[in-house]
Amino acid sequence: MRSVRARAALGATVVVALALIGAGLSVLLVLRANLTDQAGLQAEVVAREVAGQLALDVPYGRLEMRDEEDHPVQVTDEDGRVVAVSKDLRAISGTGTDRVTPVPSPTAGEPGSTGGDDDGSDDDGSDDDDRHAAPAPGRGEVDSDEPDFGNGTADVDGETADYRFASVQATTPAGVTLTVHAGAPLAAEQEAVGTVRGAMLVGLPVLLLVVAGVTWLVTRRALRPVEGIRREMAAITASEDLSRRVPEPGSRDEIARLARTTNETLTALEASVERQRRFVADASHELRSPIASLRTQLEVGAAHPELLDVPGAVADTVRLQALAADLLLLARLDAGERPGRTALDLGALVREEVSQRTGDRIAVTLSVPDSGPDSGPFEVAGSRGQLARVIGNLLDNAERHARSAVTVSVRAAERGGVVVAVTDDGAGVPPEERERIFERFVRLDDARTRDDGGAGLGLAIARDVAARHGGRLTVDGAREGGARFELWLPGAR
User: Is 171 helix (H, G, I), strand (E, B) or coil?
Assistant: First the structure.
């Protein structure tokens, strides 16, 4: 099932079905229990009424039983013998015995009988007078404990039904313990439970169909913008036109945020592709010039050896080699190459780079404190070769634009970082151009007039390397009137 709408509809339907089934079973169980308890209460009332009559020494044959058709009654003695039943009771189960025919009881054990001799002697009438003058038996009692309940069946006047039986014990004045089993019909409970169960069986599928349909429609409506985004992305992929954008719905939900994020991704991708195209075009242009010059010189030298400009050919070769190295480094940075994590002293690295620039047009003034609170070591973690390349590129840029002075300083910075500042007294960088100069192959017009072969990649490489090391490279105006480049790198610790 690959459709999100189908999975959502199915999931919602299953969840609702489980919830409804659980709720339905709970309702049926509670309803059955309540109705069964009501039937048991009715049976208990009837049983206690009969038990009360037995406690008052009412004879078995004179027991009054209300609603005998709806409330069958069975009375048993201590030995389980049936001594009394309700009218028209033909069969019974669930009371301990299924007999419904009362057995003859001894005269002394029958309520209403006081017992006596059987010889019938009445010589002087004293016996008869004494018998009538004897005190009446005491009153019996009904067990007040919770009765026993159980379910069973009874056949009353040829109709068999299910009943809830209550068993109550009573003691007659003669001390005979009897058990009264009275039943209440469960037909109302069964009818109610059956009606509710039938309604649930009919209503549940209908309700599930409604839930599935509503979920399908709601999900379809909710995912309609997603389908629009998918179609537009497919069209962008087919046309390779990264200037197109996916439609953004007016809502503020997750789909709207997805559309905005997709458009931001397309914007970044378009900019990246555009930079790549410019990079390829500029690289081709920059490579074409030294290669063409070198070829021309070699062709002239081949035809006229006396006219071969060896120093020019060497200069073009060096320029071509440097450009190829810059392009290779940028390609490695773009590929996500991570710098090493070797700990090194940035102050010592700056001293080493400055010491190698003996043939520069302008001498470099170095300021690296050796003592005091700002003294080194200025330890950072990274690639020694890449960081040396950054320092060299900054010095090359300063030499290219300075009039008479280039200054390099190293100091400790906030959060345990290290700052290398390279300052020149040249024309400086206009504020509106201070970010653009870090783009690849960008050279300002003034820079072109004094450019000695730079391709506009030095500052771009320097910023990329600084970012890869967790640092930053910024440019600002110097007090001398030129430009001040600051490289901040996090400390090794």
Answer: strand
As a CATH number, domain 254-333 is 1.10.287
Q: What is the amino acid identity at position 466?
A: A
Return d(Cα 133, Cα 420) in angstroms, integer.
133
Q: Superfamily for 341-489?
A: Histidine kinase-like ATPase, C-terminal domain (3.30.565.10)
Give, rounded to a whole angstrom, the gap between the first and last alpha carbons of the chain.
Answer: 54
Residue in the structure block whose two tokens are 């019909």: 185
Residue 50 and residue 69: Cα distance in Å, rounded?
A: 15
Q: pLDDT over 90 for what percent of the chain?
A: 35
Give the count of beta carbons closer than 10 Å to the beta carbon of residue 401: 21
Q: Identify any residues that bridge with 378 across adjacent strands, giving them in sequence order.
A: none
Question: Is it the case that residue 66 has pLDDT exceeding 80?
Answer: no
Nearest CA-CA partner of 409 in 396, 390, 423, 427: 423
Of 49, 267, 46, 84, the closest CA to residue 165 belongs to 46
pTM tops 0.70, yes or no? no
Q: Which carries the bigger pLDDT value, residue 104 or residue 217?
A: 217
Tell me the two tokens of residue 283.
């690289």
Cα 218 from Cα 330, distance rounded (Å):
50
Q: What is the pLDDT of residue 312?
A: 79
* Contact assessment for residue 95 and residue 74, using Cβ atoms and an 8 Å cutoff: yes
Domain segments of the chain: what residues? 1-107+139-240, 254-333, 341-489
Q: CA of 163: how far to CAs of 52, 98, 160, 183, 431, in Å?
A: 22, 14, 10, 6, 99
Structure token pair of residue 44: 């208990």
- What is the H or E stretch that residue 112 is in? none
Phi and psi at 97, nearest 5°, equal: -145, 145
Burial category of 346 from C-beta neighbours within 10 Å (exposed 0-12, middle 13-18, buried 19 and up): buried
Q: What is the torsion angle, in degrees rounded to the nearest 10, for the CA atoms of residue 108, residue 109, residue 111 and residue 113?
A: 0
